[in-house]
Amino acid sequence: MNYIADMRKSVGHDLVMTVGCGVLIENDKGQVLLQKRSDTGEWCVPGGAMEPGETFVEAATRELYEEVGIRVSDLKLFGLYSGTDREIHYPNGDVVYSLSVIFITKSYSGEISDSDSEVLEHRFFDRNEIPKDLFTPDARPILDWAAGIREVEVK
Prior knowledge:
single chain, alpha+beta, Nucleoside Triphosphate Pyrophosphohydrolase, six-stranded mixed sheet, 21% helix
């Protein structure tokens, strides 16, 4: 199922509201995994949009497997993100307002892959080495993580 692609057949490039689920993955060195997007070349939280009927955890787990090639588990809620920075204008003209549910975990298995067409690269970063070219909708959760925030926040 690809709900957004189906919606685009009806609404074209007009604004569509979605819910995105992403995962901040920490390795054993305390670094976070970021994904470099193929559409903008910016760094983001690995994840993607929910499909109808999925739970937040199911969507995050599916997206991480599809885009990163790994299985995640033991997901903890990191934060809920909304606001003006959630409106995304994609290079193809599509406009999306995406609410984000961001999880955090240290539990993952499998080999990280860059083979998905939406991805240029995956890389782990230290808190003090977060790249400057962040995908605007994901900047707040990434910078919150870098600042050491650990509790659930509603933003």
